[in-house]
């Protein structure tokens, strides 16, 4: 786990060539296939945690919790660069890595909420760190300039006024993360078809 944490560093791409000329590159296609599988595994683990939250706290339907959500400071990481008509793989990858970093930090809320599932949360965090590292490595292999920042975690964990708010917060962190992963998965799949 320590290695996974050490690999964390938010970054962004400064300049990069469009990746369309790499669509036939075998190594790039292999990278995409492997990380599609990795993303699918992470989605499955998040879904498992969502089922635990549903079974344990009877928090299963988002529309029933929207009023409570207004009182919570729950992060939502957009991936607008991954579904615009002007899709740019390098900026999409940058947003995916930044989002993985944010959700990696947010999972501490889930670990506190479901201590008996700490092993699954830690596995999920390690998988997220590895996916982020894979993306960074691929960008470096493509010769795209990246900026790496220090790995200290500067994202404050959300605070909750009650145990119920903590439960609802956990529900929305997982729901938002699942949507984030679905968009990231579609973006990777889109790249395989270029």
UniProtKB/TrEMBL annotation:
Residues 1-16 form the signal peptide. It is found in: Secreted. InterPro entries: 4_helix_cytokine-like_core, GCSF/MGF, IL-6/GCSF/MGF, IL6/GCSF/MGF_CS. Pfam families: GCSF (PF16647). GO terms for molecular function: cytokine activity; granulocyte colony-stimulating factor receptor binding; growth factor activity. The keyword Glycoprotein applies. One of its GO terms (cellular component) is extracellular region. One of its GO terms (biological process) is positive regulation of myeloid cell differentiation. Keywords: Disulfide bond, Glycoprotein, Growth factor, Secreted, Signal. The keyword Signal applies. PROSITE patterns: INTERLEUKIN_6. Belongs to the IL-6 superfamily. This is MGF factor.
């Amino acid at each position: 786990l320590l290695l996974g944490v050490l690999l964390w560093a938010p970054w962004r791409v400064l300049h990069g060539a469009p990746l369309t000329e790499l669509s036939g590159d075998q190594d790039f296609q292999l990278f995409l296939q492997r990380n599609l599988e990795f993303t699918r595994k992470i989605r499955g683990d998040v879904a498992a945690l969502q089922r635990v939250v549903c079974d344990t706290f009877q928090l299963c339907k988002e529309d029933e919790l929207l009023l409570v959500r207004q009182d919570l400071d729950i992060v939502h990481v957009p991936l607008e660069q991954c579904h615009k008509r002007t899709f740019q793989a390098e900026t999409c990858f940058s947003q995916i890595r930044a989002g993985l970093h944010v959700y990696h930090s947010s999972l501490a809320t889930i670990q506190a909420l479901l201590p008996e599932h700490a092993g699954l949360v830690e596995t999920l965090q390690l998988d997220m760190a590895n996916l982020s590292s894979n993306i960074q490595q691929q960008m470096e292999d493509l010769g795209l300039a990246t900026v790496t920042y220090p790995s200290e975690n500067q994202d404050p964990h959300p605070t909750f006024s009650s145990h119920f708010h903590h439960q609802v917060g956990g529900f929305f962190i997982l729901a938002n993360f699942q949507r984030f992963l679905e968009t990231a998965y579609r973006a990777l799949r889109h790249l395989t078809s270029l």
